[in-house]
Amino acid sequence: MTPFIGELLGTAMLLLLGNGVVANVVLTGTKGHNSGWIVISLAWGLAVFSAVFMVADVSGAHLNPAVTLGLAIAGKFDWASVPAYMAAQLAGAAIGTSLVWLQYRSHYQITEDALAKRATFCTDPAIRHTTNNFFSEFIGTFALVLGVLFITGASVGAEEASLGSLDALPVGLLVTVIGLGLGGTTGYAINPARDLGPRIMHAILPIEGKASSDWGYAWIPVLGPLTGGAAAAGLWLML
After folding, report:
1. Which of 18, 78, 170, 201 is 20 to 30 A from residue 157's alpha carbon, by CA?
2. pTM tops 0.90, yes or no
3. Homologous superfamily of the 3-238 domain (CATH)
C-alpha cells in the first residue's frame, strides 16, 4: 500500500466513524439520538485512534492537511509530498462521509431539521462571529499540531517525524480533550479536509430537504486550521 492510499484510506475511516457518530446523535430515529456532546467528542477521539493505528506504518497517518503542513514547516516532512498527501486526505474525507450518508440514508429521509443534516457533514459555529470563529479553529489546531510534534518525539536533528502506531492512543486522547475543552464554539473541525471534503459532498449528494452548504463560512475551517498548524510548527522550532 502506498502512502497516498494510506492517507486516503485512513482519512476515509476517520470520517466514516467520526461523522457516523454525529449522524447517530443528531438524526431522527437513531438508537443514539440526543446522546450528546460527550458521546461525539469521545467517539471522534476513538475514530482518530483507529484511523491512525490502521495506517501509521504506511503513511505516518497525518490524515489532516494542517498536520502535514505543520510537519513540513518543522522540517519533518518532505515538501514535495505535501500536495499528494492533501489530495488523498480530501478525497478520503469525501468518501468516508458519503458512506455515512449511505449508512443513515433512511434517517436523513425522516429528519426535518436541515441544519442537523448538514451537521453530519461539516461544521458551523455556535455563535457566528468571523474573528472568534477563526481564532477557535486556529487555537484548536495549534494545540493539535504542537501536541503531535511532541508526541512523535520529533527533534531538530531528525530527518522526519510521523505518527507511528504507538502514537495512536495519545493523539486520540488529545483530539478527545480538544473536543471537550475547545470544541463548543465551532465544532472543532481542526482539519481542513475533514470539513471541506464533506461540505463538497453535502452540496453534491441528493439529500432530501437539505440546507445550503454555507460556503460563506467554509473558508474558516480551512484557513483557521492551516494557520494554526503553521504557527504551532513555528513555535516548536523556536522552542
Report:
1. 170
2. yes
3. Glycerol uptake facilitator protein. (1.20.1080.10)
